[in-house]
Write a structure and sequence with these properties.
binds thymidine-5'-diphosphate; Rossmann fold; 3 domains; nine-stranded mixed beta sheet; binds magnesium ion; 26% strand; 22 strands; Ribosomal Protein S5, domain 2; alpha/beta; 25% helix
Amino acid sequence: MAKNSNTYVCQSCGGVSSKWAGKCEACGGWNTMVEEVASVGPSKSLAGGKSSSGKKSKGVEFVELQGTSTPLPRRISDISEFDRVCGGGLVPGSAVLVGGDPGIGKSTLLLQALAKLSQKYNCAYVSGEESIDQIRLRAARLGLSDAKLHLAASNHVRDIVATLNAHDAPDVIVIDSIQTMFTDVLDSAPGTVAQVRLSSQELINAAKKHGSVLLLVGHVTKEGTLAGPRVLEHMVDTVLYFEGERTHQFRILRAVKNRFGATDEIGVFEMSHLGLQEVKNPSALFLANRSADATGTAVFAGMEGTRPMLIEIQALVAPSALGNPRRASVGWDNARLAMLLAVLETRAGVGIGPNDVYLNVAGGMRVNEPAADLAVAAALMSSLCDEPMPEDAIIFGEVGLSGEIRPVSMIEQRLKEAAKLGFKQAIIPTMQEGKTMPSANSYGGLRLTQLRHVSELRALFGQISQQKRGDAVGQKPPLKRFAG
Ligand code: TYD
Ligand code: MG
């Protein structure tokens, strides 16, 4: 006889406990434990090899690795930013989770992608959040009214699974969002861990069986994790995050996990009144509003996945009114900023002193690469000595704790992108001539300045100021605020 055993499941991390507690022991979240009823049958040993229907199991059938499987072609939406992040198109039978803050544009993106896909495939859009009229209204605003797209407003998993099992099952189906889906097998409310987990499991199984692509929309909590269960990330093949500042028009689609492609790819979009537009040349966009003679900025040649991207780093070193000066950074790691300030202070004799330090990555981007160290150092020094970086220079390199500048990967791609956008010089780590670079002094029309140590960066700023003083007499002395 089946007996009911109640468990308490954390709605944030999925941790299970036999008794209620105000604080989850697994993730430390407060007020996240919710009672869930699980029906548990009498415990059975698997050793007998008999299934519930009483038949004896035959065991797993193995095949040889050297078989012939013809992979189904990927389903390509022709929105190249979207396809690239998916690893070159959607793989038939795969489940893709698209996460992001509410209102960031997930529904818009998927509606646009689906409209494109519907030119070649049978596509369906199931919304548990909006009514058919609302979706039609949105489609009209996006100019997609003519798309041959099947719409449904439903949150019953049972119905959707039946559709996926039908002989004319859609090739691509969007579920917007998984938190609104409901299966009547469980008593708990939609959006709880148990509901989300079971609903996804059912949908993924059905989609896999018939080779449909399943695109699940998932909302993100304030802490930045997918609302409810992280478990969802393990169940799907691909996890994409759609992110950006709501106040900026840029949106970035980032692959966090991909069983069928690279995970460091990003796609850049711009939100306009006509929906999301692809940004094919993000560097040009991110540098568009740069003022050439501003101090405290440096152009960093970074890599996002396989694609080089030029990003402006801005720094402001300002006298502080506080006893404990402030260090704040947006788009870059705070701990790394502290480390870099310490290295500049001890290894290059650059005294930040009792100044506040603010750092910002322009355009709402987020930079994670250590290669940005040198660009951040340059922006800081530029602000500190009130001298702009040369307008036509890009910079990159990792800074070590002893102040040494370490080489970074994919140097050629970074330099090529800079040359393409009209930059004339590059400040880079020291390279072995002949090995990575045909010449130590130039590359594709770029004049190269190779640095070994951060102290050389300080000398560089000294040179710039001296050149300038040659032109105009009576300027401020260089490095005026260096305590040295
Ligand atoms: P939406 O796709 O509904 O976000 P999500 O599904 O992630 O919650 O996007 C809503 C936001 O996008 C809303 O703030 C308005 C903006 N938007 C535009 O700026 N232009 C448009 O053409 C559309 C459709 C939306
Ligand atoms: Mg939505």
